[in-house]
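Supplementary Text 2. Reproducibility record for the structural model of the 253-residue chain.

All settings were left at their defaults, and a single model was retained for analysis rather than an ensemble. We include the record here because the model underlies the residue-level annotations in Supplementary Table 4.
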Amino acid sequence: MILFHKEFGQGKPLVILHGLFGFSDNWQSHAKHFSTYFRVVLLDLRNHGRSQWSESHSYEEMASDVAETLDELAIPKAHFIGHSMGGKVLMHLALSHPNYIDKMVVVDMGIKSYPMHHQDIISAIRSVSLNDISARSQVNEQLKDLIPQEGVRQFLLKNLFWKEKGVLEWRMNFNVLVRHMDHILSELPHGDVLHEALFIRGQRSNYILDDDIEAIESQFLDSHVTTINNAGHWVHSEAPEEFAETTLGFLLR
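Retained model, structure tokens:
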């Protein structure tokens, strides 16, 4: 599958992979900043954003989609940033298509399996009847009780678009993503990864715990885990300046 993409800047390619329920626009401000140094390519993963929808949603397929898209763009090798689910896609890419990767930055995602923890978001999205909506602000009001965090609501609302006048739709294949949630939360397969890798975690996030670091460094043989203070799972949006400084310090050295 050739994925929808946006590009900024020139130079060595830097590919950014978004997380679950996100899409390329979530990373646009960072892409513009990084474009001072790199040719930044933002991708919409399958079943997200403006890329094609499919009845399947596996990491193996998503990694192959990324490789196929890079071939289409004549990019034989690139630096990568992957957040959350996008970080797990990046790790699968390192196992199945390692020649495409130079350095890799995994943002707040470990190699372990995760218990189901998206119930509130799933319930909230299911509670919204877009047939009765005439403005995004109405969706925001409907989501408040189930999702009290303003930042999470705004993250989800970016997925809404006007398909035509008066008709709102989601940019994510919600039902398929929910159906494949067990796989999305699954453990990374075994296999040594030799790429230089930086794992960035948020201090207030529980995605990478202290007890997880040894296993990460045992599989990613040239890796380091660093923590950004006063940030949760959305490290890049909650601490954007420190995230950008940390990432560029790694990629440019």
